Amino acid sequence: MSLSHKLKLLSHFIVEGKFREIKNMFWVYPLWWNRKTAAFLLNRFFPKLGIDLFPPFLEIEPTTVCNLKCVCCEHTYWKEPSKNMTFEQFKKIFDDFGKPKWIGLTGIGSSYLNKDYHKMLAYAKSKGTIIEVFDHFAHFKNDEQIRELIRIGPDFQFISTYGASKNSFEKICVGSDYKTIEQNIKTFVRLKKQMKRKFPILNFHYIITSKSKDELPEFLDFVHSLNTEVGEILVTPLLHSFKEAQKYAVELDSQYVEKIRTKAKRYKIPITINMCAKQDAEKLEKKPSINNCKEYIMPFIFVNGDVTPCCGQNEANAREWQKKMSLGNALEKPFKEIWHSPKYKIMRKLIRENRCPKECALCPAYEIK
User: Fold this and answer.
1) Going by fewer Cβ within 10 Å, which terminus of the chain is more open, N or C?
2) φ/ψ (deg, to 5) at 156
């Protein structure tokens, strides 16, 4: 994403008077946008000063309820009973954390199947927290629910998709209705214009599988046809190619990436190519060593309260292992106590020493010798 585009998005925060969010940006984005800078500060500079920075980021899983059977999603193969987090549980975790400066409210489930989802968003937004959420827009009850989302105004709304046609999408996302999702996207754009709102800033998350890889150019056509501002399109090949999903994992070569970037540039749509199960890391580069990790300052809390280092090991179909490796439970103990526990401190120490903690054994982002 270019600097000019970032400044344009920042201007929306100024126009809408989101000054608490702007203040929070100075905490979160210097630790996120540049990996080398973040790793230097978190793993070298601050520790030498005796500073073990408390996370400004937090991710909470509001639900694991989902009535879709996506063939490449770990949820389809779980034996874990589906569960919704209550608003009271969410509020306890949020307040105990100490008002996170950035929050992701997305998990392995469909957020709109939790009746308290909008209540959670509204509470976090009332505190000036920067909110980023992902959803496939398959479960809106009606247009009024979309209006309510726009009124609440989470900062960044990513819409996840598995393809650009009914045929490819529904083969991957079994039980979905592509036309309904497409219509909900168009309704969101129409109502946002009608309500004259800048937020939520619209983004897309295009998951590349063997069924959807060739349709990404067509998806760019669709996004362009919406005639609306887009924050970015995040393109993610399968992050983990676990046994049941192996045949859907794909490789991206530099020629394919260049073709996509060229078309996105023509449409003036910022695009980010994410890391991949079959390759090394972003931009098709070699994975960095684990002492470059910055993701551990974005802990992910499961719907049952279990704390995991980050979201990177989700979607590996290793849910039981993740729970076993939990660093604590945020419904039983405030996160601050968990963060300062010996177990969590050892995890961070090992990362800084370029050694892989056992809690990070399935990390797809870094070299974990």
Assistant:
1) C
2) -130, 115
The terminus-to-terminus CA distance of the chain in angstroms comes to 32
**Cβ atoms 124, 105 nearer than 8 A:** yes
Question: Peptide bond before 200: cis, by omega within 30 degrees of 0?
Answer: yes
Reading phi first (left if > 0) and then psi (alpha if -120 to 50, else beta), residue 315 is in: left
Distances (CA, A) of 327 to 85, 119, 261, 281, 305: 19, 27, 39, 26, 10
Instruction: Report, in angstroms and rounded to the nearest whole number, the Rg of the chain calculated over CA atoms.
Output: 20
**Both structure tokens of 332:** 């039983």
pLDDT, tens digit, 9 for 90 and up, residues 217-260: 999 999 999 999 999 999 988 878 788 888 888 888 889 999 99
Distance CA 126, CA 139 (A): 25
Query: How far is the C-alpha of 369 from the C-alpha of 359, rounded, in Å?
Result: 14
**Separation CA 77–CA 335 (nearest Å):** 30
pTM beyond cutoff 0.90: yes
Pick from 109, 108, 176: which is nearest to 138 by CA? 176
CA within 13 Å, CB half, 81:
4
Residue appearing with tokens 């890889």: 213
